[in-house]
Write a structure and sequence with these properties.
Strand content: 25-35%
Structural class: alpha/beta
Strand order of the largest sheet: 4-3-7-1-2-6-5
CATH class of the largest domain: Alpha Beta
Number of strands: 12
Order of helices and strands: HEEHEEEEHEEHEEHEHE
Largest sheet: 7 strands, antiparallel
Length: 247
Amino acid sequence: MGHGWEGAVLKLLRGKDFTFTVTGAEQVTEDYRRLHFTDGGLLGAAGVHPTMWVRMWFENAGKPHQRAYTLVDPDVAAGTFSLEFALHDGCASDWARKAQPGDTIEATLQGTGFDAPEPRPSRLLVIGDPASLPAINSLLAAMPEVPATIWFETSHASDADLPIRVDPVRHELRRVPRRDAGGHLVEEVKAALPSLVSAAEDAEDAAGVYVWIACDTATTRTLTSYVRKEVGLPKGRVHGLGYWRAA
């Protein structure tokens, strides 16, 4: 399958193409599926960094369709990783539901750069949902010594069983049911975030907070603007990336 005009643009941006092979599958919940892959040389060529993602190519009514997914537990020596799919209607979820060992899929590596903040922050403030869960887990693993507060938006009862890798000693997990197209999450974050920022900023020898936001595009945009303009955090201490678009 060709990659169309999007693939041509990624080539111009020096995107690198790989072919992954499915080696196994786990149905984590009825709404969440994990697939295991061999990497087709990806990890040896590119290495690994926190929240690393790739663009996967799916067929949608005979046309190429790309979606980004975060690598889970990448093993450079073994050349393996997993991907996790929050299942809904769509060609990517349809493919993930049916994928079996031996199936292959094409992917492009481009645009995935992320550097963990230095110096390490006094506290992480993380806002996400099942679509960004692999990236949340990767971020927490990259800075295990840093306390974190995580607002995690949920849409299904089964989301209570998702593999959120929190340390009960260092991490505070706040589950927020999705309401009002993300508006409820925005209200919850705005009610609590300023005081957490102030506490971290005022602590002795504080390095300040780092805010990481990855929800639906509209919610991410709203919260990123709020943290930058109203809370007043500088650009280098805020990361916002919309992971999906609400229908």
